[in-house]
Design brief:
437 residues, 3 domains, globular, transmembrane, transmembrane helix, membrane
Length: 437
């Protein structure tokens, strides 16, 4: 690197100021996450804006990992000619960290999506049905919810039978197949499957911020359809382009009706039948979404860990990782706040509970950042440090690939170049920061 903060590293990272610098670097994304949580009342950014920032954040993180973390890990794995034992130890430690990161992140991913709010009432209703104790008001409510759920599933199954019967006749017939008729049956099956899946997850209503997002997407669809209707049928190529835009708007709106788990940059859609919420007991109202809270806290802790480990090797590396995670953590805080606001509206929690839950992930990021810096300083020459770096590297790559890039692709279904190019803008900024820092 050129002359920069790096040349002051030996003077700075030797005393108490080292921990102050590590704390400041970890505090930057933590503050960004806090500001993102506070921005929940400002409205919902459009899908295109979200996709651009997702791609920019992914590019920044990938560039930072390539510029700072991977070279560090590569050097420790190869080792020196005179110290082959240390290299072998580092390889084993890196492998353990690699596998452990995959286990933790896939477990965390399944934790985010595995449990819906509808499963708990259904299970509890079954237990109460089997119990010999007199039925309580809560048991009656849960039983009513389970009965309505079963009725909807049976209705969806009947609709599927009709559509499948028609498709079976097409499959057994001879000659050409009418595309219009086939498409009609496929849409019928698609609606039946989506309806049954929403029933399984207990999704009846969109509430809170999800309602605002749905209305914004409805407005986009109406605008695209009106523009399509105003076109002349003689201009086939222009009409086809507008048809693609309207189709993309329809897909984005249709995705809003699917039962939603927590998305890193998306809103958490309500997963409890709105007509039954007010009838639940006080015990149900106090139930916290610990799966969501735990997932976001671990996410923030991993980012803080990588910042701390990077700072223990060089201030420039830590600063680059902190800058790369600022945008990412800001939108993560926004998404987390949107999800909890929906829960507060539904279950009427106290404001102090919401504030405490929103403060937990930034505090985890800050604490793990400073803690990882201290561990990195103490274990810099130990093979355990290699395992920690490997763990953090794989965990962040998992979040970039499985969350940021996938969600950005979902929002950019029409594949606009001015959205996907932000990945490379992020890479360029990251490499530029590497040069100047």
């Amino acid at each position: 690197m050129s002359f920069s903060i790096m040349e002051l590293q030996d003077d700075v990272l030797g005393g108490s100021r080292a921990y102050a610098i590590a704390s400041l670097l970890a505090a930057a994304p933590a503050l960004s996450m806090t500001l993102g949580s506070a921005a929940v009342g400002l409205g919902v950014p459009s899908d295109v804006v979200q996709a651009r920032f997702q791609n920019l954040s992914a590019g920044l993180l990938i560039g930072a990992l390539l510029a700072e973390i991977y070279p560090m890990l590569h050097h420790r794995l190869i080792g020196d000619e005179n110290d082959k034992h240390l290299a072998v130890s580092n390889c084993v430690s890196a492998f353990v960290g690699f596998v452990l990161a995959l286990v933790v992140m896939y477990s965390l991913h399944s934790l985010e999506q595995s449990r819906s709010a509808a499963e708990a009432p259904q299970t509890e209703a079954k237990e109460l049905e089997d119990a010999e104790a007199p039925a309580s008001p809560r048991a009656v409510v849960l039983q009513r919810m389970a009965t309505a759920q079963i009725a909807k599933l049976r209705s969806g199954s009947s609709n599927l039978d009709v559509a499948i019967s028609t498709l079976s006749k097409m499959q057994k017939g001879e000659g050409d197949i009418d595309i219009e008729m086939l498409d009609e049956q496929l849409h019928s099956i698609d609606f039946a499957l989506d309806s049954m899946r929403r029933t399984c997850h207990g999704v009846d209503l969109l509430t809170g911020m999800a309602t605002q997002e749905a209305r914004a997407k409805i407005a986009d669809l109406v605008q695209d359809v009106e523009a399509l209707q105003a076109m002349s049928p003689r201009k086939v190529s222009v009409m086809d382009s507008q048809l693609q835009r309207a189709s993309a708007s329809l897909k984005r709106l249709h995705a809003q009706t699917n039962p939603g788990a927590f998305r890193r940059w998306g809103l958490h859609r309500t997963a409890t039948p709105g007509s039954q919420v007010n009838q639940l007991s006080d015990q149900d109202r106090c139930r916290l979404p610990w799966g969501l809270i735990f997932a976001v806290a671990i996410d923030a802790a991993v980012d803080g860990m990588l910042i701390g480990l990077s700072t223990s090797t060089s201030v420039g590396a830590g600063m680059l990782m902190a800058i790369a995670t600022v945008i990412e953590m800001g939108f993560l805080g926004y998404s987390f706040s949107c999800s909890l606001v929906c829960e507060v509206t539904k279950f009427k929690w106290r404001g102090g509970v919401l504030a405490g839950l929103l403060a937990l992930p930034p505090l985890c990021l800050l604490a793990f950042g400073v803690g990882a810096f201290a561990i990195g300083e103490a274990l810099q020459s130990c093979f355990v440090f290699t395992g920690l770096v490997s763990f953090a590297l794989v965990a962040v790559l998992f979040l970039v690939i499985q969350e940021l890039l996938l969600e950005a692709a979902e929002k950019n279904e029409d594949e606009n170049w001015n959205v996907s190019i932000f990945i490379y803008v992020g890479l360029f900024i990251s490499f530029g920061l590497e040069v100047f820092l």
